[in-house]
Write a structure and sequence with these properties.
The complex is a heterodimer. Chain A is α/β, with parallel strands linked by helices. Chain A is built from seven helices and ten strands. Chain B has twelve helices and no strands. The chains are: A alpha/beta, B mainly alpha.
């Protein structure tokens, strides 16, 4: 093991999510093989790995969307549950450019039962604006979701995910379709969120550039966990360098 | 119905307003047009246009099965067939990795071939051409009652599940993380769609029912900038085209359903220009 603090300490009392022996197979293919992962409360964890390493499948297993073997539990404030409350920010959506759904519609549809097709009230509009303003996205409120840039859409989706007051935030490939400036802004917002809300974050990415400054721990996943530890340790790991090449070749490296 | 007849006599003193079949047809159009527009907004957003076409064509197989079983009114076998198809396609979508339009193409071929083969026994297919082009002028007051029921059901469904439908159509994982049971939402929507299509197929016909679903939403989408305007403009297009199409068909002696569709196509063309003009105005501003 690379680090003493590798996250799999059995005595952990505040595990936001504890995954043990997780196996997922799709048909004949074993996608994830005996993955053990503990995420502490208030920890930002990056799961990195090449394409096809099972990163998104891991998230889908945590969301309960794919059948899996192994155990998953959560221990927050001494209360044990199967799963923590999850906020999910999907990978860049395949949106139609002419989709008529506006940012306000999407936010209000997520927080209100009153159907948005019937018209939105000024009160709901104000509420949506307030939610979006935390994520520097309130100026986008009347834009259609198909018109947003990758970074803007990520912030709107993050705002929506946070309305559920999640204990665990899952971010799926936040760097896809987002320029470097937007990505830095996004990571800064995530770091601020963690400080303010004591929320745990699992962020899945194949883009290693610039994440070291924003995460506490990196897990290098390739079907099973190859290495984990602090960013400095993992980013200099031989197996990772073998898969991604030297740092100069990492996409969008700054 | 009496109240409606008197209302038409009082408000619409035109030649076409004197015939009770036109009064019935007008009421049917006013009730069913908003329903089609509402369902159509989701059909277009979820890219289900081909699916609803297959659904409409499955009516042929439903009618055939009704005839074989000796059921006089084929509505029930048609609804059963369409609901089975809707659920099958939805289940299939979850398990197969094959392209959806291929799967639908297979279903379409099967449904149409089965229907035509069974109905054309002894050269009797001509009797069933009314289902192909539909006849809204023949709508009976009893049917209008069912259309009103459908109108209510769809309205209630849209009030309770409208937001869930939007989130599911944007991203189903996102919707599931908000504790929306997406499979249930999608399946109930397709079942509702199947029932509405089958109940109204006698009125508008297999060949054009899909246009009534797709066109109002497609036209509205060209310029709508929010879900609210998208939905309401689709309903306006649908109702206005429905009424104008019906009246025009009375004077021109043409099939009402097809005439309504032509008006909808007109709306679509106008909306393309409206969208372009709006876009240019926005860029300049």
């Amino acid at each position: 093991m690379l680090s003493q603090n590798n996250g799999t300490d059995p005595a952990c009392r505040h595990c936001c999510i504890r995954i043990e022996g997780l196996c997922v197979s799709l048909g004949e293919n074993l996608i994830l093989d005996k993955v053990d992962l503990h995420v502490h409360c208030g920890e930002v964890l990056a799961v990195v790995g090449p394409n096809g390493a099972g990163k998104t499948t891991l998230l889908r297993a945590i969301l309960g969307e794919v059948p899996y073997r192994g155990s998953m539990s959560s221990l927050i404030g001494g209360v044990e549950r199967r799963r923590p409350k999850i906020g999910y920010v999907p990978q860049k959506l395949q949106l139609d450019l002419d989709s008529p759904v506006s940012v306000a519609d999407l936010v209000i549809a997520a927080i209100r039962h009153r159907p948005v097709w019937f018209g939105v009230t000024a009160r709901d509009m104000g509420k949506a604006k307030k939610i979006l303003s935390v994520f520097l996205a309130d100026h986008l409120i009347n834009r259609r979701i198909g018109e947003l840039s990758g970074g803007e859409l990520q912030r709107v989706l993050l705002a929506i995910a946070m309305t559920a007051k999640p204990e665990l935030l899952l971010l799926d490939e936040p760097s896809s379709g987002v320029d470097q400036k937007g990505l830095v802004l996004f990571y800064q917002i995530v770091r601020d969120l963690r400080e303010q809300h004591d929320i745990s974050v699992i962020l899945v990415t194949h883009d290693l550039s610039g994440i070291a400054a924003y995460v506490d721990r990196i897990v290098f996943l390739n079907k099973s966990i190859v290495a984990q530890g602090s960013p400095e340790e993992v980013l200099s790991n031989d197996a990772l360098l073998g898969a991604f090449g030297p740092p100069g070749q990492w996409k969008g490296m700054v | 119905m009496e109240i409606w007849y008197r209302l038409v006599d009082g408000l619409l003193p035109f030649e076409w307003g004197q015939y009770s079949f036109m009064k019935n047809a007008l009421l049917a159009v006013l009730v069913i047009a908003p329903v089609f527009a509402l369902l159509g907004t989701m059909v277009v957003s979820n890219r289900m246009a081909f699916f609803t076409d297959v659904l409409g064509h499955s009516a042929l197989a439903g009618i055939a099965i009704g005839v074989i079983c000796g059921i006089h009114d084929p509505t029930w076998p048609m609804i059963m067939m369409a609901v089975i198809l809707a659920v099958l396609v939805n289940v299939f979508k979850g398990v197969t990795r094959a392209s959806m339009d291929t799967v639908l193409g297979v279903f379409l071929a099967f449904m149409v071939a089965l229907g035509i083969t069974l109905l054309s026994r002894n050269g009797g297919f001509v009797k069933y051409t009314v289902y192909l082009i539909g006849d809204i002028l023949a709508v009976a007051p009893g049917q209008i009652f069912w259309l009103c029921m459908i109108f209510l059901v769809v309205l209630i469904y849209w009030c309770f599940l409208g937001n869930a439908l939007i989130l599911t159509s944007v991203n189903s994982s996102l919707a599931r993380s908000r504790r929306i049971r997406t499979f249930l939402v999608e399946t109930s929507f397709t079942v509702l769609l199947a029932v509405v299509v089958m109940i109204s197929i006698r009125l508008v016909g297999i060949l054009i029912i899909n246009s009534l679903l797709v066109l109002p939403a497609a036209a509205s989408r060209n310029f709508a900038r929010s879900t609210c305007s998208y939905t309401w403009w689709a309903m306006i297009f649908s109702v206005v085209s429905g009424v104008f199409g019906l009246v025009t068909s009375f004077y021109s002696g043409t099939a009402s359903g097809a005439t309504i569709v032509l008006f909808l196509v007109g709306c679509y063309v106008l909306s393309v220009f409206a969208g372009r003009w709006g876009f240019r105005a926005k860029v300049r501003g």
